[in-house]
């Protein structure tokens, strides 16, 4: 594949190069459990792939492997044409930023004593050059840039000076999304990022994510046990079971009676739970 030939030149990435690619990801916990077992994946630019499967199937472990925060037994990961598993130290950090994550429990990722603006701009504060470039491009100062980021997720700028404890779970999750998008990543991994919220707030977040995806063209790996949400957001569905991908299909085919027996089992289980 041509991605290899361009491995050292991320800027030469063509539109055909996937936003995220992984080959042969395997991860075994110390207790001997292989939570991810030789998984490969490719997400096109601007595509949203849904990763579904029952609790314990290895979805979060895979996400951590992709993000490079979990040591793998084997496997390679590319963002665009850059293999990030081949990089170390500062080079790794610089490239890895092109992929961001939104986790389930937003409150855990905020320092309770730091006003929202500090947490929101944390990724950009770590890269003063990018912060300066964004401010110059938009002709705004730091605070206005933060306000714009909040507006993008339909939050009011007056939240900037508040402490995280005074925001609702839904508001904090929106700030997490704004923070993940602040550095204009090519890939965002969302791991059960709405699971702890009320159903009505979840629905609004799904709409927001759908809009943002269309607006920004960012690729997404949307990890969830909520098949309804995955069908709403994702173009393509990947079904995971016991560390392996057992089925893949267009989202519109998920409910088809012709699917893999495990997928049908999962769909039946989901229907039973949601009535
Ligand atoms: N730190 C850990 N040590 C040992 N086993 C773990 C650890 N974290 C997760 N597991 C196990 O790995 C498997 C996959 O877990 P996880 O990736 O969290 O699945 P999912 O996100 O699909 O619910 C499960 O059997 C889980 O119990
Ligand atoms: Mg999980």
Automatic annotation (TrEMBL):
Belongs to the ABC transporter superfamily. Pfam families: ABC_tran. It comes from Acidipropionibacterium jensenii. Its EC number is 3.6.3.-. One of its GO terms (molecular function) is ATP binding. Keywords: ATP-binding, Hydrolase, Nucleotide-binding, Transport. PANTHER family: D,D-DIPEPTIDE TRANSPORT ATP-BINDING PROTEIN DDPF-RELATED (PTHR43776:SF7), TRANSPORT ATP-BINDING PROTEIN (PTHR43776). InterPro entries: AAA+_ATPase, ABC_transp_ATP-bind, ABC_transporter-like_ATP-bd, ABC_transporter-like_CS, P-loop_NTPase. Residues 20-267 form the ABC transporter domain. This is Glutathione import ATP-binding protein GsiA. Coiled coil: none annotated. SUPFAM superfamilies: P-loop containing nucleoside triphosphate hydrolases. The gene is gsiA_5. One of its GO terms (biological process) is transmembrane transport.
